[in-house]
Amino acid sequence: MYNNRHGGAGGSRGGGGGNPFLDALEKLKEDYNHMQAQLSTQRAELDKMNAEKEQLQRHYMMYYEMSCGLNMEMQKQSEVAKRMTALLQSMLQYVPAEQQQSTLQAMERAKQISLPELQQLSAASQAQQMLGMAAAGPMGAMGGALGMAGALGGPGGLNMAAIAAAMGGMRPPQQTDDRPTQSSSRQSSSRQRSHSPAVGEKKPKIETEDNDDDEIDVQNDDPAGPAVNGKTGRDSVLSGISSSGASTPAAKNFATGQQRLPLAQLDPATRMLMQGMLTPNGKAPYSYRMDGTGNLAPTIFPPDALTDPGVPKSVKAIHDLPHGEVVCAVAISKDAQRVFTGGKGCVKIWDLAANASQARARLECLEDNYIRSCKLFAEGTHLVVGGEASNILLFDIETQKEVAKLDTTAQACYALALNQESKLLYACCADGAVVIFDLASMQEVARLPGHTDGASCVDLSGDGLHLWTGGLDHTLRSWDIRERRELSNINFDSQIFSLGCSPTDNWVAVGLDTNQIEVVNTTPGAKDRYQLHRHDSCVLSLRFAHSGKWFCTTGKDNLLNVWRAPYGALSVRASESSSVLSCDISSDDSVIVTGSGEKKATVYQVQYDASP
After folding, report:
1. pLDDT tens sequence across 297-335
2. CB-based burial of residue 95 (10 Å sphere; 0-12 exposed, 13-18 middle, 19+ buried)?
3. Residue 118: exposed, middle, or buried by beta-carbon count in 10 A (0-12, 13-18, 19+)?
4. Rounded to 5 degrees, what are φ and ψ at 18?
5. Residue 591's pLDDT is what?
6. How many Å apart are CA 102 and CA 109, to the nearest integer?
7. According to the model, what pLDDT value does residue 135 have?
8. Strands 539-544 and 529-532, how do they pair?
9. Positions of the WD repeats (predicted)?
10. Taking CA 293 as the corner, what is the angle to CA 455 and CA 555, rounded to the nearest 5 degrees?
11. DSSP conformational letter for 376
């Protein structure tokens, strides 16, 4: 009886045209996909709102600085007026008795300013400011600069609180180049650091919004990345890009009131501006020449600085390579047809001539750790990879197989360099050592001690006889490759994140954790150098063109800049939508490839003629 009843029910359901359980599952799948799409949309909206929030916070701090500055100026002027009144009253005794009463009446009348008089004074002041700006250019009207919100933390990194202070009265925060300081982001020794497995090991740092220093933890350039060192997404690396120093001790000093800054303590751009040292076209300079005594003067570029046929006039993005993870390292083959992008746990190989939208191959390496550097052998047959792991891996590109593993014994390898014959490998490690490997025997042959903090970048001189390394200990060091000993070291005010050696001249350019680039003359006995200021944040990568006529830099400010070597005339500026972490240049200087926090690499065609 029960079997028949059940069978009838089953037949009735079967006659309905399908299995209801499968239908229900299909509906659940559709609902799930719909919810996933909504979740993605909400995440995008959340990212957008967070970006707007950061922008509002920057504006708030900008206006807060202006408000504090104006308030302090008002207090100062009020105190001046009181003291002048007391002085005048004390001098009344020297006025003849018959004139004392009229003098008192005149003083009282001077204190009574009507509203129409205030309006007239305001209009006259504004007119004077406009005349000053017209005469000296937009950056020259210092009298009216305090009222211009756009002048606060602009591309030149000017902090109006500091300017007003040096002009006479405000108590400013020190200029921090986030809009220049990014705190000395990858910066001073007392910084906050996030650590990978081993306690005490250090990573290069990137500036933060609160102007505390965090290490370069590339996972933070992944908005959806997992929590790392107690921070999620971009927080650890981009734990802030916002303020012009409002949360730093300097800003607190500004709020509580300390002595005004001496002119010499202001950043070079502000100091030059206030001293009236503008370029002949009336614009604030961004390149300065420093002599042996440390004095800065705006660089006067030669007439052919940007017209030389070997200097790029523009760059054009021709390919986007969707790596899928934050691209921390890039390399390009000699023929500019293959690009290698390093992200989290793998290197992808792209064939630009075939299909730039899909990787040709994938090399699994370093497990789930981020890759910091990848270098091609001179003949293009092998690739060496290093990153946030103690091992350096060597791959055969054709077979896509790992052929060797080299142990640095350090927590991480931040940078790699190969000599011209690809026989020696130089690895900059998190413990400050520079390890040299013989690639024929695959053995460590030397270890160069010297850096007291992580060695973050490395390059070889054009003649191949000297090795240059930069570190988080604020030093640039040169080494004799044959004798394997340190030759010299140069101290900087902040950590060094990137460097490049000119292949044709004795110049080394370094990118700092502030917004500065310094180009140092390495000729024995020479002390001159250039200081460049057109980044708004830390300079994360730097490469010289093989011609030696120009070099490119990328930074946390999303910019790719191309400079004329060595004096830094800015030739090209391109903007991306996220931090640009790495770059490389093809051997014929015709292609630039960059890797960014937007989980992609961008390939640029370098254009040397001015025609569009």
Report:
1. 899 999 999 999 999 999 999 999 999 999 999 999 988
2. middle
3. exposed
4. 155, 170
5. 96
6. 10
7. 52
8. unpaired
9. 448-489, 532-563
10. 40
11. E
Return the closest-CA partner of residue 495 out of 217, 189, 194: 189
Encoding tokens for residue 57?
Answer: 């916070």
Q: Environment class of residue 6 by beta-carbon count within 10 Å: exposed (0-12), middle (13-18) or buried (19+)?
A: exposed
**9: which DSSP letter?**
H
The residue type of 261 is L
Q: At a CB cut-off of 8 Å and minimum separation 6, what does 235 contact?
A: 220
Q: Which two tokens stand for residue 369?
A: 């750790």
Q: pTM (2 decimals)?
A: 0.60
What distance in Å separates the CA atoms of residue 75 and residue 72, rounded to the nearest whole number? 5
Which is nearest to 188 in space by CA: 201, 200, 172, 176?
Answer: 176
Strand partners, 507: 521
| Residue 393 pLDDT | 94
In angstroms, the CA 514 to CA 497 distance is 10
Q: What confidence tens digit (pLDDT) does each residue in 573-595 have?
A: 999 999 999 999 999 999 999 99
The reported pLDDT for the residue numbered 39 is: 93
Element (H, E) at 52: helix 20-91
Taking the CA atoms of 225, 226, 227 and 232 in sequence, report the sign of the dihedral they define.
Answer: positive
Residues of the chain with pLDDT under 70: 1-17, 128-283, 611-612
Contacts of 436-445 with CB under 8 Å at 24 or more apart are 436/484, 437/392, 437/406, 439/394, 442/394, 442/404, 442/406, 444/406, 444/407
- CA distances to 144, 395, 601 from 377, rounded to whole Å, are 57, 10, 21
Confirm if 595 and 581 have CB atoms less than 8 A apart.
yes
CB under 8 A, 24+ apart: contacts of 489-494: 489/450, 490/520, 492/518, 493/184, 494/184, 494/186, 494/187, 494/188
- Phi first, then psi: give them for residue 480, nearest 5 degrees: -80, 115
Which amino acid, 110? A
Please tell me the distance from the alpha carbon of residue 261 to that of residue 169, in angstroms, as a whole number: 10
**Given strand 424-429, what is the order of strands in its sheet?**
413-418, 424-429, 434-438, 443-448
DSSP of 231-279: B-TTTTT-S----SSTTSHHHHHHHH--PPPPGGGS-HHHHHHHTT---
* Packed helices 20-91 and 160-168: angle between N→C axes, nearest 10 degrees: 10
d(CA 236, CA 565): 34
Q: Is residue 72 packed enough to be buried (19+ CB in 10 Å), middle (13-18) or exposed (0-12)?
A: buried
| Length reported for the chain | 612
